[in-house]
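hi! just following up on the protien thing from before. the input was this:
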Amino acid sequence: MPPRPVAILVRNHAPLSAVGADIEGMRLALESQGTPVRIFAGEGTAEPLAAHLPWARQQDALTLLHHTIAWPQGLAAFLRAPSPRVFRYHNVTPPRSFLPYSPAWAAGAALGRAETRLVLARGGLDLVLPCSGYSRDELRARGAPAGRTQVLAPWERPARDVVPDAATVTRLDDGATNLLFVGRMSPHKGQHHLVDALAAWRERWPEAPVRLLLVGGVDPRLAGYARDLQDRCRRLGVADHVELMGAVSQEVLEACYARATVFLLASHHEGFCVPVVEAFRRGVPVVAVSRTAVPETAGDAAVLLPDFDPQALAGAAHELAMDPARRAALVAAGRARVARYYDPADWRDRFLALIGPLLR
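and the predicted 3d structure came back as:
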């Protein structure tokens, strides 16, 4: 008997995003065992959502929803789809970070969290797949079925076939310490804390050349945050040491990782934080504020700080930059953690083991 087909629903299918990579990993795993997969979305490079329900009902398909933010139409289609239904939870950022910049975005975040409560209250979920233990605990507190709620880390797109951009590698290889952060430009990602840390570095060690590389796109609705960040750089006198790179190609991203001295993270909310694993895999030591899912993702392979103190962030980054032995030890710990917990083959096997019984 052929395997049951799978419909994947996502509000915005952006293949190069972390969620897009997770969807790609699921598609590849399912298709490797002969399971037909179709992706339906409200936006982006996928089939229109309207095509989902007729096909799912005709084919008796499994429907898998990736939940990241409010999507009333997608949630309605998911709840009306025939069983089995799988709820993939990437976590939804609390709205408070967005209020000063985009009330509409804040409202979407609040609604997304309300939708999480709704889907759990409705019940009938055959499998719940949070990306981390942090998200699992949140879902269980809201009534997720314990026996059918299983942590599955996001799939990370391999970069072995990507050649780092030569011009970027050359430009960054000038003897300066390169502090890197990768993530969309958003107040909850805490780029402003990283600018403060850079200013602290410049004040304490003015003779040590340093630059902060902020990689990540800017949503037009949060353009005010990007402007505030630029103003902050000028006010603190570090504008010449900060590169707001925006969205970049995979080749430029790999070049940034290749020349990064330290990956610096000060997010207020992360449901997992794929860039931490990317940094580990590429041999970049990590300094991070220990919030939400970050300590779980990083484990003992990163320098974890208790709060957003810019002096502490600067001090930890500077210590690593100046201590090759300590840096090498963290690099080795990061690679060991990746091998143990984030191996792509192990991820595939776990995903198929979890979803397999629902495909028969």
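The chain has two domains: 6-156+343-359, 166-341.
The mean pLDDT is 96.
cheers
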